[in-house]
Amino acid sequence: MSREEFINIDPEIMSGTPVFLGTRVPIKTLFDYLEEGDTVDSFLEDFPTVKREQAIGVLEVAKDALLTPA
Fold this sequence. Notes:
The protein is mainly alpha-helical. The protein has a single domain, classed as Orthogonal Bundle (Arc Repressor Mutant, subunit A). 46% of the residues lie in helices and 6% in strands. It has a two-stranded antiparallel sheet with strand order 1-2. The radius of gyration is 12 Å and the shape is globular.
């Protein structure tokens, strides 16, 4: 599972803010929802352009980055 499957970083889209691939929804928004105690389902309801597989994929990418030894 790679970052490029789920995340787009392009200076022409949202000034290079990491967004879900194929959308203009910032990745940070998912983490903001989770930080506030909301569920992934709640996030997906509010951002229907993001697919469940994308949200879970981003969380898996973040988990791998944090748990993989340097």
